[in-house]
Amino acid sequence: METKKVHIEMDCIHDHVNKTMTCSWLNGEVSIVVYWEAGTLGVIREGKVIDTYDLEGMLISEFMRIQEECQAAAESLAQFDEMVA
C-alpha cells in the first residue's frame, strides 16, 4: 500500500471579546487554544485537553514547535481518513 503525504490547512480565529486565539486542523479535531487572560495554551484533540502550557516566558519557537506537532498529528490523522474513504 502506498502512503502519500497529506497537507492540511490550519484555520486561525481570534476572538477579541473572549481574549482567545484558536488554531485548528480537520474542522477542530486537533486544535490549540490560547487563553490570553489566563496566560495558558491548551492542545485539544477530539474535544479533550491533552496538554496545557503556561504562556509566561514561552518563546515564539516553542509555540511554533507545538503548532508544528499539531500540524503533523492532523496530517497523520488525515491519512487514515483517506484510507477509509
Topology pattern, helix = H, strand = E:
EEEEEH
Query: Looking at the structure, what is the overall shape?
Result: globular
- Whole-number average pLDDT? 89
Q: From the helix content, strand content and strand pairing, which structural class follows?
A: alpha+beta
Number of DSSP helices?
Answer: 1
Query: How would a crystallographer describe the biggest sheet?
Result: 5 strands, antiparallel
Please give the number of β-strands: 5
Strand order of the largest sheet: 1-2-3-4-5
Residue runs with pLDDT of under 50 for 5 or more positions: none
Indicate the radius of gyration in whole angstroms: 14 Å
Separation of the first and last Cα atoms: 15 Å
State the helical fraction: 25-40%
Strand composition percent: 35-45%
